[in-house]
Amino acid sequence: MPPCLHGQSASLTLVLMVASAAIGGTLQYGYNLAIMNAPTTFIQTFINETFLERWDVQLEDYQVTLVWTVIVSIFSLGGLMGALIAGPMTIRFGRKNCLLLNNVFLMTAALFAVSSRASRSFEMIIISRFLVGISAGVSMNVQPMYFGESAPKHLRGAISLSSAVFTAFGVVLGQVVGLREILGSEQCWQYLLASNAIPGLIQLVTLPWFPESPRYLLIDRGDKEACIKALRRLQGCSVQSCELDDILQEQAETKGLKPQTPWQLFTERAVRWQLVSIVITSSAMQLCGNDSIYFYASYVFKESGIPADKIQYVTIGTGACEFTARVLNNVKESFLIRACSFKQGYISWMPYLSMTCIFTYILSFGMGPAGVTGILPTEIFNQTARPAAYMIAGSMMWLNLFITGMIFPFLVSGLSAFCFVPFAVVCLLSALYVGLFLPETKGKSLSAISREFHKLNYKGQDGKRGSQTQAEYQLGEAPLSTTV
């Protein structure tokens, strides 16, 4: 067995592992949200030209908008499919290998995108976006699971927030690469859509050097030696014993149990409030309207009164705000955006105040649900339920992103200054739920979190959980921990 790494070396390994996984994970999600905004006009022209060449039909503006909306929103349907296959893939291949295999979808998508213009086929763009969505759907489920199972308990919060940081960085990167001076020009938009292959290649080269999730190695594969080796590489000697005890505790609680299906979770009372929590938080993450701003930034800022020649530079501010996000409140910003938009026709500087409010709204999202929602299923479900929980959470996230992506441009056109009011209501209701019902998970073991949910699931009853070990098992009792 190789010697333990010193804390500093182990921390560096953990940081590099996080970066490698996120480059092909949440960074790709943010990047692929952002790159669709810059070539909007060029792709719409391409769609119109294609219809004219094939069928001698000149599309009306609303028809072009509809086809464009399908191109944008098909990304979400692909994400939904990716979320559904992510659970079985992680069980069969493991967390790390699943992320690596996921790049097959990405590379195929890039090939379709770069060939679409020469082939005179907007359908290839649709296929490309669908495949990119599958890739993002898989990685958005698997990456938080990989992080949550690999990070030491005291760093779990920081590691979870890194997912949001990489998403925001992906947005900024996509917006910068999408500038007309780089790949956002009429001549280069097909290369912009295919540029997501580069982060995928970086992940393929770097991620194989890092270990698999220690929890997966011990609980799913029963490989104690590989688990200890992974812990030594990622966490060093100082925290290994307590972390191994925590993994052993979860192994004892799930001993003899098979991975659960989403349907089993829906019918099991012992996880009722956990399930409600991930459904509400995952849905609210998209129904708050934040990610739709990236899809349709041109529409939003045009409606806000920003000059057309400045919009591409202003959109970079949306990603920069999320990247530099600080603690703000989501709810109050939505109402402020509505108020500023309402006055923009009467006060010359109001469009820029409206722009500032949009930035602030995105900023608050970055340090709120964006960082926490993805890691939540890891913290409130055990190993057998975790893949199914991520399938449910991911499905809700992508389904609601599809809904908001489809209606957002029509919402902006129809409600104008009031378009953010529905999102404000979602923010308010979800904030009330989180404040009243979701237990704090910071620094707690899975068993401690489960006991708090047990009180909610069996409120006023003496109901028993499926495994009494969960209540009786004490850290450090497992004989395997003495082998560290």
From TrEMBL:
UniProt lineage: Eukaryota, Metazoa, Chordata, Craniata, Vertebrata
Keywords: Membrane, Transmembrane, Transmembrane helix
Keyword Nuclease tagged: no
Protein name as catalogued: Solute carrier family 2 member 11
Membrane topology: Multi-pass membrane protein
Organism of this sequence: Takifugu rubripes (Japanese pufferfish)
Gene that produces this protein: slc2a11a
InterPro entries: GLUT, MFS_dom, MFS_sugar_transport-like, MFS_trans_sf, Sugar/inositol_transpt, Sugar_transporter_CS
Superkingdom assignment: Eukaryota
Molecular function via GO: D-glucose transmembrane transporter activity; fructose transmembrane transporter activity
GO biological process, one term: fructose import across plasma membrane
